[in-house]
Amino acid sequence: MLLRYLALGDSYTIGEDVPAQARWPMQLVEKLRKQAVAIDDPQIIAVTGWTTDELSAGMDQAALAPDYGLVTLLIGVNNQYRGRSADDYREQFRTLLLRAVALAGRRAARVVVVSIPDWSVTPFGYASGRDRAQIARELDTFNTMAREEASKAGAPFVNITGISREHANLVASDGLHPAGAQYALWTDAIEPVVAAALRTA
Length: 201
Known about the structure:
Blueprint: E1 5-9, H1 11-14, H2 24-33, E2 43-46, H3 52-61, E3 70-73, H4 77-81, H5 86-103, E4 111-114, H6 123-127, H7 132-153, E5 157-158, H8 161-166, H9 180-198
Helix pairs in contact: 2-9, 3-5, 5-7
């Protein structure tokens, strides 16, 4: 029986401006299959531009069928982009994480949280006219909160923010979202954590 995988997020999960096979959830599945993990294609609930509350609403409308053997959660960049408060982010992220754990059959170890990348370092970020240092600080705050909530829930956390900063040149044609090559680097970081999670009961 194939392991069922639910990927929750926004543009970074759906892979805005890259082919479907270049999305990191698809690259992750391919990497796991090479290690003889019998896993289905990901069910992706993600739309470019979604905030935490919009992802929650999207989940309400989606055909979800727990229990999933693996759930990933990457959300928050649009909260920061729209100037939403960090306190609201924490509260809504916590709710999403609890929903994700429930969808994973209440196995928090099977829910892998992925950090928000830093868009301030991209060509779009440079051209935005916004305070790039402030963007980075705000994203760091959001990511600290996500890591804390993941830790409280017992869910693994993967930090890919450093990769996004170190490889800011690996962007798609829109100058904002990662190219497939950057997603491959994310996948290299995410896969060992997922593999360890799959070894839990």
